[in-house]
Amino acid sequence: MLRTMEGIESLVYGIGIAGVAAQAAAGVLDAGRKPFDLFGIVVVALAAALGGGTLRDLLLDRAVFWIADQRYLIGAMAAGLATFALVRLVRLPARLFLLPDALGLALFTVSGTQAALALGAPWLVASLMGVITGVFGGIVRDVLCNELPLVFTGELYATASWAGALLLLGLMAHGTSPGQAALAGGSLTLALRLCAIRFGWRLPMFKARS
Amino acid sequence: MLRTMEGIESLVYGIGIAGVAAQAAAGVLDAGRKPFDLFGIVVVALAAALGGGTLRDLLLDRAVFWIADQRYLIGAMAAGLATFALVRLVRLPARLFLLPDALGLALFTVSGTQAALALGAPWLVASLMGVITGVFGGIVRDVLCNELPLVFTGELYATASWAGALLLLGLMAHGTSPGQAALAGGSLTLALRLCAIRFGWRLPMFKARS
Amino acid sequence: MLRTMEGIESLVYGIGIAGVAAQAAAGVLDAGRKPFDLFGIVVVALAAALGGGTLRDLLLDRAVFWIADQRYLIGAMAAGLATFALVRLVRLPARLFLLPDALGLALFTVSGTQAALALGAPWLVASLMGVITGVFGGIVRDVLCNELPLVFTGELYATASWAGALLLLGLMAHGTSPGQAALAGGSLTLALRLCAIRFGWRLPMFKARS
Q: Does residue B100 register a pLDDT over 50?
C-alpha cells in the first residue's frame, strides 16, 4: 500500500503515538474509579501508556523511548488530561477505547519484538518482549489501583499479542521481509483481540486444589 | 550564603542522606501497621528511601546511586532500625517526620531534575525525573503494603515537586546559575509542601461516571 | 567433592535452572488461588522465577540473565506449565516445593552476592544483591496477586539469605577461596531456611502505636 519505507515509518510512528494516547485514556478511566487526585490519575495514565515500552527498554539496555523522544510523553499526558476533562462533561462509553487500545497492542507487540530481534535476542525472548511491551503498562495500572491485573483475568489480550509476535518471528525465519512480517503479525494480534472482545474468547482458568 | 561549590555540594550531600533517612523512617511507620516482620519492615523502609532515585538512575542509564556510594544505604538502614526501636519505646507523633520528609522531597526534586538535564534530557522529561525521584519511593512503599498510594490521594506532594522542578528549569532557561535555580526550585517545593500540610491544600479529584 | 571448576560451574548452572523451575512452580500454586487465566498464571510464574535476578542485573547494569541465555526462560515456562497440568490431575502437597525452593534461594543468594562482588560493589551492597536475587521474585508474585508479600510475614526467608551472604563475604575477606565461601554461605542459607520451616522460626514483628 505504502510505497516508501519513510511512509511506513511515519505510519508506525503515528500509530505508536495513538496507541500511547489510547492506553493513557484507558488508564484515566481505570484510575477515575479510585479516590485519586488529578496527579494520581495522570501518573496512572502515564504508567499505563509508557510502562510496557519502558520495561522493554530497561531489559534490553536501550535508551528509554519516551526519554529519547518526549513526544510520546506529551501525547500520553495530553490524552490523559483530555480524557479527564471529557469524562467530567459527557458520559463516554468505556468501549470507545477498545479499538485504539487494540491498535496500540498490535503495534507495541510488533515494535517490541523487532527491537529485541535487532539487538540479537533469541526468538523466545523476542516474542516475550513483544508481549511485555504490549501488556506491562496495563499490569502496572492495575497494581497502582490495588486491583488484580485485568490482563490476567479477561478476554484474550496477551495471548493475542503473543500469537502475533510468534507469527512475525515464524515468517521472518522463512525469509519474509520485516515489513510484511510486521504487517501480518500485527494484523493477527489486532484481529484476535477484536474477535476476543466481540465473542468473549478466554483462556482456561484454574483453581488449584491445594 | 555558602561561598564555595564544595560547601554547597557537601550541604546537598548531607540533606540527601537526611532525606533518605527521613523517608526510611516514614516507611517504617507505614509498614508497622501491617503484620510484617523486622525484615519486611526494613525492606519497605529501603524501598521508600531509595526507590525514587533508583528508578531515576535506571531510566537515565546511570550507575544506581546507592550502589555507587553505600553511605545512602547505611543511612537508610540505620534510620529504619532506629525508628523500629524508638517506636517500641516511645510514642512518636507521626507528624514528626513531615519536615525532614519535605526537605528530602525538595532535594530529591532538585537532584533528579539536574541529573536528567546533565544527561541532555528534554525539559519535560527532566521535570518528570525530579518528580519520580521525589515520589516513586512512597508509591512502592504503599504498593508493598497493599494500599492505594498516598501520593495519589492526600495533600499536594507530587504537585509541589513538579512546581519546583518547573521553576528550576524556567530559571535556568533564562540564564540563572544552576545553584540559584536549584535553591529557588527546592524552596518552592518545600514551601508548597509545608503549606499543603498546614492548610490542607489538595488537587481536584474525580469519579468517572462510566 | 568435584575436582574441576567446570564441574562446579555446571553444578551451579544445573541448580540455577532447578531453582528457577521450583520458584515458577511455587508461583503457579500461588496464582492458582486467584481467578487468573492460563496466561496470568504463566506470567506470575515467570515473575516469581526470574524477578529477583532481573532486578539484580538491572541494578548492576549487567545483561539480564534470561535474555542472554534463554534456557532459564524455557525452564521456568516448562515448570510453570507442567505444574499447571499436574495440579489439574493430582493433588500436590504444597510443601513438596519447599525443598527445591530453598535450594534455589541458597543458590540465588550465592550467585547474586558474587555477581555484585565481581563488579566491585561494596560489601553491604553485595550482600543485599544476594538477598534481592533470592527474594524479589516472591515479592513481585505476591504484589501481582494483590496480597501482602509472604516474604515479609512468614518463617525466616530473607534472613536466611542474608546470613548466608554475610558468611560468604566474611570468609572471602579472610582469604577463603570463592568456591568454598560460596559452599559455606549457600549451606548456611539452606540450613537456616529448612530449620525455619521445620521449627517455625520467625523474626520479631511489631505494630506501630502511631
A: yes
pLDDT band per the 50, 70, 90 thresholds, residue B162: very high
Domain range list for chain A? 5-199
Contact: C148, B91; criterion CB under 8 Å? no
- DSSP 3-state of A10: helix
Mean pLDDT of A2-9: 57
Residue where the block lists cell 491485573:
A149
C161 sits in which H/E element: helix C158-173
Spell out a b/e string for A156-193, using b for 16 or more CB atoms within 10 Å of the CB, else e.
Answer: bbbbbbbbbbbbbbebbeeebeeeebbbbbbebbbebb
Encoded amino acid at C100, one letter: P
CB atoms within 10 A of CB B167: 20
B88 inside 8 A of chain C by CB:
yes
Q: Is A192 on the interface with C (CB under 8 A)?
A: no
Partner-chain contact A204 C37, CB within 8 Å:
yes
What is the chain B residue with the closest CA to C149?
B144
Percent of chain C predicted with pLDDT > 70: 88
Sign of CA dihedral B40, B46, B49, B54: negative
Chain A residues within an 8 Å CB radius of B152:
31, 34, 36-37, 39-41, 43-44, 144
Kindly state the average pLDDT of the residues A93-101.
71
pLDDT digits (tens, 9 = 90+) for C95-130: 666 777 788 889 889 988 988 888 888 889 999 999
Dump pLDDT digits (tens) for C177-209. Answer: 888 999 999 999 999 999 998 888 887 765 544
Q: Is the dihedral of CA C20, C22, C25, C29 positive or negative?
A: negative
Nearest 5°: the CA angle B160, B164, B168 is: 170
Angstrom CA distances, C106 to A89, B37, C59, C169, stand at: 57, 21, 20, 14
Q: Is the pLDDT of residue A4 over 60?
A: no
HEC string for C77-142: HHHHHHHHHHHHHCCCCHHHHHHHHHHHHHHHHHHHHHHHHHCCCCHHHHHHHHHHHHHHHHHHHH
DSSP B90: S
Q: Report the alpha-carbon distance of residue A105 to residue A11 in Å, rounded.
A: 15
pLDDT tens-digit map of B121-156: 888 999 999 999 989 988 888 888 888 887 877 788
List of chain A residues whose C-beta atoms are within 8 Å of the C-beta of residue B209 = 87, 91
Contacts of C148 in chain B (CB under 8 A): 34-36, 145-146
**CB–CB contact B58 C58 (8 Å):** yes
Segment C20-74, tens digit of pLDDT: 888 888 888 878 778 888 888 888 889 989 999 999 999 998 889 898 888 999 9
Q: Is B201 helix (H, G, I), strand (E, B) or coil?
A: coil
* 3-class DSSP assignment, residue A205: strand
pLDDT at position B184 over 80: yes
Q: Is residue B164 within 8 Å of residue B186, measured between CB atoms?
A: yes
Contact yes or no for C94/A210 (Cβ under 8 A): yes
